[in-house]
C-alpha cells in the first residue's frame, strides 16, 4: 500500500487469481472485506510472473482515504454475490457507491 501518491490517491497491490485479468486503465470499484463497494478504482498495473506461482498482482488506484479499506477490484458492470443477495443491479450498486463516496467527500 502506497498511502499517498501526492494527487489525493493511493495505490493498493492485491493478489488477483481470476480470469480474465483486468488491464491497465480499466475502471471499476474497490471492494471492502465484506464484499461491499467502498470507492471508485482504476487499474494502474498488472504483474504476472512464474515466481508468483500463477498468482497475479493487481495494483489499483483509489482515493487515499480508502487505502486501508480496499481489498478487491470489481470491474465496471460486474455484480457481486452481495448484490445478488440484496437484489441490487450493477448499475444501481455503482450509483449508490458513487453517491456515498460523493457524500463522504463533501463531508470532509
Overview of this structure, please?
Helices cover 22% and strands 33% of the residues. The chain has helices spanning 81-86, 90-107, and strands at 9-16, 27-31, 37-47, 56-63, 72-75. Strands 1-4-3-2-5 form a five-stranded antiparallel sheet. A hairpin with a 5-residue loop joins strand 2 and strand 3 (37-47). The protein starts with 8 loop residues before the first strand and ends with a helix.
Overall helicity: 10-25%
Task: Report the end-to-end length measured between terminal Cα atoms.
Answer: 22 Å
Radius of gyration from the CA trace? Answer: 14 Å
Structural class: alpha+beta
Secondary structure: elements and pairs:
Elements: E1 9-16, E2 27-31, E3 37-47, E4 56-63, E5 72-75, H1 81-86, H2 90-107
Antiparallel strand pairs: 1-4, 2-3, 2-5, 3-4
Short account of what is shown:
The protein is an alpha+beta fold. It has helices spanning 81-86, 90-107; strands spanning 9-16, 27-31, 37-47, 56-63, 72-75. It is 22% helix and 33% strand.
Features:
single chain, 108 residues, alpha+beta, 5-stranded antiparallel β-sheet, 2 helices
Amino acid at each position: 500500500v502506497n498511502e499517498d501518491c501526492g494527487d489525493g490517491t493511493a495505490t493498493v497491490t492485491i493478489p488477483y487469481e481470476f480470469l480474465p485479468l483486468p488491464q491497465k486503465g480499466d475502471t471499476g470499484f474497490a471492494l471492502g472485506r465484506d464484499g461491499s463497494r467502498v470507492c471508485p478504482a482504476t487499474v494502474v498495473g498488472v504483474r504476472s510472473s512464474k515466481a508468483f506461482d500463477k498468482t497475479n498482482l493487481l495494483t489499483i488506484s483509489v482515493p487515499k482515504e480508502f487505502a486501508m479499506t480496499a481489498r478487491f477490484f470489481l470491474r465496471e458492470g460486474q455484480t457481486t454475490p452481495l448484490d445478488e443477495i440484496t437484489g441490487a443491479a450493477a448499475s444501481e450498486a455503482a450509483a449508490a457507491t458513487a453517491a456515498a463516496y460523493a457524500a463522504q467527500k463533501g463531508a470532509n
